[in-house]
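ok, trying the design again with the full structure, not the truncated one.
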């Protein structure tokens, strides 16, 4: 009986040894990218004006950092400068197409008719970044500053948050 049991264990061990070992998944490569960009946008809404921006962005996996300067100028009568530093979170990192959201700080200076109005505010961002058929990185995003600006038109005060919609071209 002992010999039969030993023979059964030996035969079973040979059968198990022939089976393929389960394949171990190799870890996916971490998405890492760094580039500068220029952007064209509209804002601050509800009074949209064309904005031009320059910035830089760095991504490592799900995390990213973005710093930019946006501006518009109508000669000496009106200038808007908006400096931004933001943390970005990429939901599914993939350089071909990825959505992101983030938060940061924005400093905004409005220079109008010799008067300067400066504000520092939190900022929230949502966007989509993708690589086009030519291999160039592009993005669409919305920046929302919950700080309200006050304007006076026709003798009435109006307040609104600063919202900027932009399209970016990376280099």
């Amino acid at each position: 009986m002992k010999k039969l049991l030993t023979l059964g264990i030996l035969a079973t061990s040979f059968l198990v040894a022939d089976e393929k070992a389960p394949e171990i998944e190799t870890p996916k490569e971490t998405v890492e990218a760094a580039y500068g960009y220029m952007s064209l946008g509209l804002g601050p809404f509800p009074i949209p004006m064309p904005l031009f921006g320059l910035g830089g962005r760095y991504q490592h996996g799900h995390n990213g950092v973005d710093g930019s300067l946006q501006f518009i100028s109508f000669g000496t009568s009106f200038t808007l400068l908006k400096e931004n530093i933001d943390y970005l979170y990429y939901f599914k990192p993939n350089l071909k197409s990825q959505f992101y959201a983030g938060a940061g700080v924005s400093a905004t200076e409005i220079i109008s008719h010799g008067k300067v109005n400066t504000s520092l505010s939190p900022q929230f961002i949502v966007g989509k970044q993708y690589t086009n058929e030519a291999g160039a990185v592009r993005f669409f995003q919305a920046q929302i500053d919950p700080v309200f600006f006050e304007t006076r038109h026709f003798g009435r005060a109006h307040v609104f948050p600063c919202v900027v919609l932009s399209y970016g071209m990376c280099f």
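Keeping the full-length input from now on. The helical segments are 2-18.
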